[in-house]
């Protein structure tokens, strides 16, 4: 018996939910906004999933949808994230609670990254996830050379922010 669309989506999302959590961490400042953005990204991923053709890895596709959702919502509202009313059914998908204490060591870096613009944040995130420049460029819709140049400039910016 083959997997249903829903089962396939839940399986892929469970395997890749840290991608969504980390993007939420980059674009929000508290746990309530984090959870709201996580929920909105999950909804957008589910809506777009029937169109996912598998031309790229699920994780690459999820990055793109999650980043676009986060950036769109971030631009629409200065600091708060509005979400679509949606009740997650327990059998459908439950996400693991995100451990903010575990991320405490990265607090200074996150504060510095929060000062970057949307595209710079996305680039830093994927760079820290050890994505190669080809995948970064594909996800962000820019050339590989442009991704490398932007990353070098961002490194300089972050050094200035962290070491004034």
UniProtKB/TrEMBL annotation:
Residues 108-158 form the RNA polymerase sigma factor 70 region 4 type domain. The keyword Cell inner membrane does not apply. Residues 14-79 form the RNA polymerase sigma-70 region domain. The keyword Transferase does not apply. GO terms for biological process: DNA-templated transcription initiation. Keywords: Sigma factor, Transcription, Transcription regulation. One of its GO terms (molecular function) is sigma factor activity. PANTHER family: RNA POLYMERASE ECF-TYPE SIGMA FACTO, RNA POLYMERASE ECF-TYPE SIGMA FACTOR. Belongs to the sigma-70 factor family. ECF subfamily. NCBIfam families: sigma70-ECF. This is Sigma-70 family RNA polymerase sigma factor. It comes from Flavobacterium capsici. The lineage of its organism: Bacteria, Pseudomonadati, Bacteroidota, Flavobacteriia, Flavobacteriales.
């Amino acid at each position: 018996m083959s997997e249903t669309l829903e089962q396939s989506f839940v399986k892929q999302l469970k395997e890749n939910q840290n991608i969504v959590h980390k993007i939420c961490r980059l674009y929000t400042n508290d746990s309530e906004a984090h959870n709201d953005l996580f929920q909105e990204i999950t909804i957008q991923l589910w809506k777009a999933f029937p169109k996912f053709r598998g031309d790229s890895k699920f994780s690459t596709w999820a990055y793109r949808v999650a980043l676009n959702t986060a950036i769109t919502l971030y631009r629409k509202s200065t600091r708060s994230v509005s979400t679509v009313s949606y009740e997650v059914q327990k059998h459908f998908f439950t996400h693991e609670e995100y451990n903010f204490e575990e991320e405490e060591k990265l607090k200074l870096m996150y504060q510095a990254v929060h000062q970057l613009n949307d595209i710079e944040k996305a680039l830093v995130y994927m760079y820290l996830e050890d994505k190669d420049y080809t995948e970064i460029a594909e996800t962000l819709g820019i050339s590989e050379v442009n991704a490398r140049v932007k990353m070098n400039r961002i490194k300089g910016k972050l050094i200035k922010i962290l070491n004034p």
